[in-house]
Each structure stands twice: as structure tokens, then as C-alpha cells.
Specification:
Two copies of one chain form a homodimer.
Chain A lengths: L8 H10 L1 E5 L4 E3 L7 E7 L2 E7 L2 E8 L6 H8 L7 E4 L3 E7 H10 L1 H27 L2 H16 L4 E2 L2 H8 L3 H13 L3 E4 L2 E4 L1
Antiparallel strand pairs in A: 1-7, 2-6, 3-7, 4-5, 4-6, 8-10, 9-10
Chain A binds a DNA duplex (30 and 30 nucleotides) through α7.
DNA sequence: TGTAAGTGGTGACCAATGTCACTGTTTTGT
DNA sequence: ACAAAACAGTGACATTGGTCACCACTTACA
């Protein structure tokens, strides 16, 4: 049986018997913009990134960590609306795919699942609000530094292996801007760059 | 008994017997940043605005319309966290104040209330995402025009009575910027200004 | 090993918008 | 009606970030 902390045994059984366990390699798109959703992914291992996008510009909204779910999928599926965001695996992941119709039923039967979903909505609301505050109140240097700090905290790796281009796309800006700001951070001794790795000091 | 569309009679009775009905004049702060919340407001009549703020700069996040609630209050109260946003009445309002502990109980007993809360979370997630997209992808002229369109739609008044300063604060920018952009919109025949009123064409 | 693709560095320039200073007009309150 | 307060208009300038052009370096792989 699949272990799910904080959920009742009865629910864990239901989920185990009705969901698909899948392994997805890193950097794979698991939810497309505009897609109609029929399963709710629950992350068991790994890390998933959720983005908004318009034309060539995109922005990382938040990460989905183990034991969290993509509540937007639930939302979109409930109202039978296409997804407004898209999601990519950041690492190799193990996901549990819960069928939407079952979830709707479980919500009514299992208060602990109901609570989990409320918590998830709550968490995402906070994530989006934080994103808004950064866009509105912070300059690029602070946004970049916060981004790097979060990345280090989540992946538990310090010299990060990531390209300027990649960072730019997650922060919704251009590569040159990241290069420019990164140089400034390096001069301020906040980061150190070695070939394609970035160390947070 | 207080009429609440889409809620069961039994729940309407519970709510009527356990909540306070209050009337609040326009432009009154009903939820402060950092405040701990003990009631969930449900808007019966009027319009409430929700903002985020940092130092002198603030931004309108979304409106709460009749038969909607401030789900963030619920969230904050559940986790006993201070509110990250603040709310102001935009018009004279009738609000129903639901005690948090009762709501937590009703959520388990009345599936229709549970559904309402899911819908509200969903709605606010969409509102915040829309706000992010505007901040990230749109220039001031489009943001201002969208703001005016929404205001006209919500208040059902066309020549709007509102100052540039007010608009600036709701869009998180400066008065001069609004004056400048408004002039441009006027030249493009998208709005018409007469003393302190703005008409959307 | 050599070529292509990806990556980063950099200067010049542009566009959007935030800021300042100052003016004149409109509205409000008494 | 008058003074005070709020509001709007505007030119000049600063800052931030986006764009372009182009060069050099590294990596992948055929």
C-alpha cells in the first residue's frame, strides 16, 4: 500500500486501489496550458514547477513538493475548465495520479482529504500572493537572490547547476538581465560563479 | 431568516441564528494587515476590495461581490495566522459575520458550504493569477483600461467618480503615471474626462 | 577532432515608468 | 464667499529593465 502521511488508513487503501503510480523524468511537461484535466497529481517524490505563460514570457509561480498536490488541476477539473498554468518536473518524480471523479467522491467521505485540499488551496494562495508581492515591490537583484535561496533550500544543493537562460525564464525576464544582475551579486560577494554553476554565499 | 442562495434551509437557519448582520459604510477598513481573524465575512450587499500592501505602495487584488466571502479570513483563522491582506468596503455594505469555530463545524456537516468554500478558493486563485498576468505581461495603458472596465461592470455606473490618486493606489503606481496614461487614453478616444469623472467609451 | 549548439559577457541603446518640482483648478467646509 | 485641501497637468530627469549586436568560451557529439 502507498504510504500517505496524515491520511486515514481507509483512504490510503482507496487511493492505492484507484490511482496510478508513475515515474516521470526531470524536465518533463506534465500539465499543459489549456489542457482539460482528468487526474489530480499528488507528488510523492521529486519536485514539480508550476508556471504561467504568455507568448514567449513565462514565470515560475511555485513548486509542488512531496506530499503536496496540484490543486489547480482539481479546480480546473471540477469546473471542466482548461488549465491556466502549466507544470514541469524539476527532478525525477514519483507521482500518484488520482482520478478526478473518485477524488470528488472522497472529498465528501473523508474529512482528512477535505482538509488536505483546503490546506493546499491555502498554500497556493499564499504562494501566488508572495509572487505578486515580489513582482510589485522587489527589484531584480532581490528577486534573483530570493530565487536562488529557495532553489538551494528545496534541492539541498549549494553550488547550483543552472544556466542564466533558465533562471531568466523562471523569473520572467531576459538572459542578459540575469547576467548583468548576477555580476552585481558577485561583486557584492553574495554569490560565486564557476563555469555553469552558481554558489550562494 | 437571512436568505442565502444555494445553501440548504438547515444551514441558512444555523447561519441566521449564529451570525451577526452588520451594515458598514463605504471606504471603511474591515480587515487589517497583520490582524488575527475571528469571523468570516460574507458579503450580502455592496462591494469589498482586497489589497496587498508594502510600505506606501499597495495593489488591488480583487473584489468581493454579494454572496461571496473573504476566504482568506477563513484560511488565516484556521491556521491562526495574521492576515496578509487588508480589505476595505467600496460601497455601503451589508455583511454577515460568521464565527470561525461555527464555520469549521458547518464545513463538516454541510456539503453545500464545503462546496461554496472550494468555489471561493478557486475564484481567488484565479483572481490572483489574473493579477500576476497583468503585472507581468501588460503595460500601464492596458492595465488602466481593464481596471476601468471592471469598475464600470461592477458598479454599473458609467461616468465613474474616482480620482487619479485613488486609481494609482489601486494599480500600485503613482498619480502622475495615471494622469499621463489617462491623457493618452483620452487622445485615443477610449475614455472621456469631465472634471473628476471618467467615462469609458 | 572539428563543428555545431549552447552558454555567458558586454556595451549601446530604448522604452516604460517612477520621481520631482511646480503650477493651476476644483471641491469642500465653515 | 473664502480659505484650505484635494486634485490634475506637465516638463525634466533618473532608474530599471528589455533589446540588439556581437564576441568568446565551453560542451556535446558525429
Amino acid at each position: 500500500m502507498i504510504k500517505l502521511p496524515n491520511l486515514s488508513i481507509a483512504l490510503q487503501e482507496q487511493i492505492t486501489n484507484n490511482s496510478a503510480l508513475v515515474e516521470i523524468p526531470a524536465d518533463t511537461e506534465i500539465l499543459r496550458e489549456g489542457q482539460y484535466v482528468k487526474v489530480i497529481p499528488l507528488v510523492l517524490e521529486g519536485l514539480v514547477k508550476v508556471f504561467t505563460k504568455y507568448e514567449d514570457k513565462e514565470l515560475l509561480l511555485y513548486y509542488i513538493q512531496p506530499n503536496e498536490s496540484c490543486i489547480m488541476s482539481f479546480t480546473a477539473s471540477l469546473k471542466n475548465e482548461p488549465s491556466k498554468v502549466y507544470a514541469i518536473t524539476d527532478e525525477n518524480c514519483k507521482l500518484l495520479l488520482l482520478p478526478v471523479d473518485k477524488v470528488a467522491q472522497w472529498i465528501g467521505e473523508f474529512p482528512d482529504l477535505n482538509n488536505l485540499f483546503f490546506q493546499q488551496y491555502n498554500l497556493r494562495y499564499s504562494d501566488l500572493l508572495e509572487t505578486i508581492n515580489q513582482l510589485l515591490f522587489d527589484k531584480m537583484d532581490k528577486r534573483l537572490l530570493d530565487y536562488l535561496k529557495e532553489k538551494v533550500a528545496l534541492t539541498k544543493k549549494n553550488p547550483l547547476k543552472i544556466s542564466h537562460r533558465q533562471i531568466a525564464s523562471e523569473l520572467g525576464t531576459a538572459r542578459e538581465v540575469i547576467s548583468r544582475v548576477m555580476k552585481k551579486l558577485e561583486q557584492e560577494a553574495k554569490v560565486k560563479q564557476l563555469s555553469t554553476t552558481i554558489e550562494l554565499l
